[in-house]
Design a protein that fits this description.
Number of strands: 13
Radius of gyration: 16 Å
Order of helices and strands: HEEHEEEEHHEEEEEHEE
Helix content: 10-25%
Number of helices: 5
Distance between the termini: 39 Å
CATH class: Alpha Beta
Strand content: 35-45%
Largest sheet: 6 strands, antiparallel
Structural class: mainly beta
Shape: globular
Length: 237
């Protein structure tokens, strides 16, 4: 698979929607994950990321303008022991609760489908990092409609063991802008991971569409001792 430039993937797509990146830092010493949200409506754009324990949650920037919290207020990131869960919806909680009961990542998502937001039927994208023995592996999942037909849910899981330094994978909800919005297709994209946390955060934020970007979360986890650094960027300040 050809390695793509994350900057170019973002710069050339006005509306990838919500996106997850997971991989290993350039120096091979850290697990890396990022999650961003975008919005076209006032309700979607009226959000910020806030820290919530070891994870984060979305919150209305101006509570008086919040019209429908059902698909926009959730915890995108939660930590369960040596596992970091990152998703684009409240399936973060589904995965957390399932894995806490010894279900696998894939099994935990069996009770969920794409979002009920016709006609888009936004895919549910999820990622999980397993840390251990000075290394890590990760998996990504997408639950999507059958080319816009809500009668069928298509489930794909991609697992990555012993990731290489400077490499990661990127999955997002929409192929590009449109009405209805076309769901992501194919495998997660192989992308390069470069620089330290601040450089990587800037690369993501500066290349997201300035009109549609809303919030960004980035975390680098030290594989040696499990310590982590987090950056949160919100368009609404």
């Amino acid at each position: 698979m050809q390695m793509l430039s994350l900057a170019e993937e973002l710069k050339n797509n006005a509306y990838p929607g919500r996106g997850i990146v997971i991989g290993k830092s350039e120096d091979g010493k850290k697990a890396v994950t990022a999650y961003f949200i975008m919005g076209r409506s006032e309700n979607s754009r009226n959000r910020i990321f806030v820290e919530d324990g070891e994870g984060i949650r979305t919150q209305a920037f101006d509570p008086s303008k919040l019209t429908d919290p059902s698909l926009i207020i959730y915890a995108p990131v939660r930590v369960l022991g040596n596992k970091i869960i990152v998703t684009n919806g409240d399936q973060t909680d589904t995965i957390y609760e399932g894995m806490d009961k010894q279900l696998t990542f894939e099994q935990s998502l069996r009770c969920r489908e794409f979002e009920p937001d016709a006609p888009n039927y936004t895919p549910r994208i999820s990622g999980i990092i397993h840390l251990g023995n000075g290394g890590f592996n990760y998996a990504m999942s997408i639950l999507k409609s059958n080319n816009g037909n809500p009668d069928s849910c298509q489930r794909y899981t991609f697992a990555y063991e012993n990731p290489a330094a400077g490499e990661g994978h990127f999955i997002h909800t929409y192929m590009h802008d449109g009405n209805p919005l076309p769901s992501f297709e194919g495998e997660p994209k192989l992308v390069g991971i470069s620089g330290g946390i601040d450089e990587f955060t800037s690369l993501l934020w500066e290349n997201l569409n300035p009109e549609n970007k809303v919030s960004l979360f980035v975390r680098f986890i030290n594989l040696e001792d499990g310590s982590s650094e987090t950056r949160i960027v919100n368009k609404n300040q």
